[in-house]
Specification:
- The complex is a heterodimer.
- Chain A has a single domain, classed as SH3 type barrels, CATH 2.30.30.140.
- Helix content of chain A is 14%, strand content 35%.
- Chain A contains one helix and five strands; from the N terminus they run βββββα.
- A five-stranded antiparallel beta sheet of chain A has the order 3-2-1-4-5, with no helix packed on it.
- In chain A, a hairpin with a 2-residue loop joins strand 4 and strand 5.
- The longest helix of chain A has 12 residues.
- The radius of gyration of chain A is 19 Å and the shape is elongated.
- The model of chain A has no long low-confidence stretch (mean pLDDT 85).
- Chain B is built from 16 helices and 13 strands.
- Chain B has one domain: HypD, alpha/beta domain 2 (Rossmann fold, 3-Layer(aba) Sandwich), CATH 3.40.50.
- The model of chain B has no long low-confidence stretch (mean pLDDT 94).
- In chain B, the strands form four sheets. A five-stranded parallel beta sheet of chain B has the order 2-1-7-8-9.
- By secondary structure, chain B is of the alpha/beta class.
- The chains are: A mainly beta, B alpha/beta.
- At the A-B interface, strand 4, strand 5 and helix 1 of A face helix 1, helix 2, helix 7, helix 8 and helix 10 of B.
- Chain B: This is Hydrogenase maturation factor.
- Chain B: Belongs to the HypD family.
- Chain B: One of its GO terms (biological process) is protein maturation.
- Chain B: GO terms for molecular function: 4 iron, 4 sulfur cluster binding; carbon monoxide binding; iron ion binding.
Chain lengths: 85, 369
């Protein structure tokens, strides 16, 4: 129920609703819980409602953080130990 | 797909796992509770536990809305569905949760009750408009993520003066559940992976209290595998350094204050219940929400004078202990034998966010401990 993924707003419609796109699938959702959404924004959709807008700058920061990970790691750490299954 | 694929990169996951193995101290254990069922699902789906060292133990928390609803509330919904002239609408997972005598809403539907699976609270409003001669009841469950959509539906019903629509509210609060788990001290929790979508609504501020009160590090994480692994790394670092702070890995969607518009709508429609019964946690004070007097016309509990009776879990089912993080699915003697996703005995086997369903679906029969 809580599993939801970011969807791109493809079209704003009447009555505070929007058409979103998820990998080619289009769905109508409600924008009643968010303000100031524009076409092209990414929103987190949950049970048919946008819960909030995704912040592209913060997403870029998190990805940049990931890119720095694992630099200069000794080889013994790069394979999971056999017993960890 | 943007904002999804980048957070599922396998090579990065290997590097993150290597970082976690490098930083986890071999002279101690780390008990990390992922509160939310969405994280439980991600951990199993992507095999995260298998990438972690043996001394990091993921404990599955009570954050699965279907799992924590007690049998008595399911029974009330079934009783309501059988009443003449009622159409009962609810989210898909709720249809399969067994109530007393293994009767579920799906069986009630097969027995002639008008039960309808909906995707959104807006669908229930639409059904009410299309069936003016029927009483349409929305059986509403869930944490802070599903509560705002229920509030919107009630506000819209009030605007439209929709007399044949009401809500059977079973909405519950995440902080109360975390407090109950921490307060009981049963599960050995050193750090918490904080919920993703719940936090988009309530923000990161409510967790600051536990971090301080229980000296407990909390890292709010997104639902993708790299998010979960990064949160684990951040928790390991906090524990190694003796810190107990609220950190936000999911900053692309979560702020400190959360979604104020959604919070205002919830506050307009709902108020705290004195106490609410949870499966696994029992009666927890100030942990559930009821509809305010102002909107009593839309409160199904009042409209239909619904009685409530506590019902004990099936004696063979360990859902309660699993929800509290005290036992694992493999400790339950009916897991995977009598109890399967096709034939669930307990609620943790119903929803994809339930620990038992996750173990069963992703074949995790061996564990690191």
């Amino acid at each position: 129920m809580c599993l939801a993924i970011p969807a791109r707003v493809a079209e704003l419609q009447e009555n505070d609703t929007a058409m979103v796109e998820l990998g080619g699938v289009r769905k109508q959702i409600s924008l009643a819980l968010v303000d100031g959404v524009s076409v092209g924004d990414y929103v987190i959709v949950h049970v048919g409602y946008a819960l909030n807008r995704l912040d592209p700058d913060e997403a870029a920061k998190t990805l940049a953080l990931f890119a720095e990970i694992g630099e200069g790691i000794a080889p013994e750490f790069l394979t999971p130990s056999a017993s960890s299954e | 797909m943007k904002y999804i694929d980048e957070f599922r990169d396998g090579q990065l996951a290997q590097k993150l796992a290597a970082d976690i193995r490098r930083e986890a101290r071999s002279d101690r254990a780390y008990g990390l509770m992922e509160f939310c069922g969405g994280h439980t699902h991600a951990i199993f789906r992507y095999g995260v536990q298998g990438l972690l060292p043996d001394n990091i133990n993921m404990i599955h928390g009570p954050g699965c809305p279907v799992c924590v609803l007690p049998i008595g509330r399911v029974d009330s919904a079934i009783e309501l569905a059988y009443r003449p002239n009622v159409i009962l609408c609810t989210y898909g997972d709720m249809l399969r949760v067994p109530g007393s005598n293994r009767v579920s809403l799906l069986k009630a539907k097969a027995g002639g009750a008008d039960v309808r699976m909906i995707y959104s609270s807006a669908d229930a409003l639409k059904i009410a408009q299309e069936n003016p001669d029927k009483q349409v009841v929305f059986f509403a469950i869930g944490f802070e993520t599903t509560t705002p959509p229920t509030a919107v539906a009630i506000l819209q019903a009030a605007t439209m003066d929709l007399a044949n629509f009401s809500v059977f509210s079973n909405h519950v609060l995440t902080p109360a559940a975390i407090s109950a788990i921490m307060g009981s001290g049963e599960a050995r929790v050193d750090g918490v992976v904080g919920p993703a979508h719940v936090s988009t609504v309530i923000g990161s501020r409510p967790y600051e209290l536990f971090a301080e009160q229980y000296h407990m590090p909390v890292v709010i994480a997104g639902f993708e595998p790299l998010d979960v692994m990064q949160a684990i790394l951040m928790l390991v670092r906090q524990l190694n350094e003796g810190r107990a702070e609220v950190e936000n890995e999911f900053s692309r969607a979560v702020t400190r204050d959360g979604n104020l518009k959604a919070q205002a709508m919830v506050a307009e429609v709902f108020e705290l219940r004195k106490t609410f019964e949870w499966r696994g946690l029992g009666w927890v004070p100030d942990s559930g929400l009821q509809i305010r007097e102002k909107y009593v016309a839309y409160d199904a509990e009042k409209r239909f004078e619904l009685p409530y009776q506590s019902v004990a879990d099936h004696p063979a089912c360990e859902c309660s202990a699993i929800i509290r993080g005290v036992k694992k699915p493999l400790d339950c003697k009916v897991f995977g034998t009598v109890c399967t996703p096709d034939n669930p005995i307990g609620s943790c086997m119903v929803s994809s966010e339930g620990a038992c369903a996750a173990y069963y679906t992703y074949g995790r029969y061996k564990e690191s401990r």
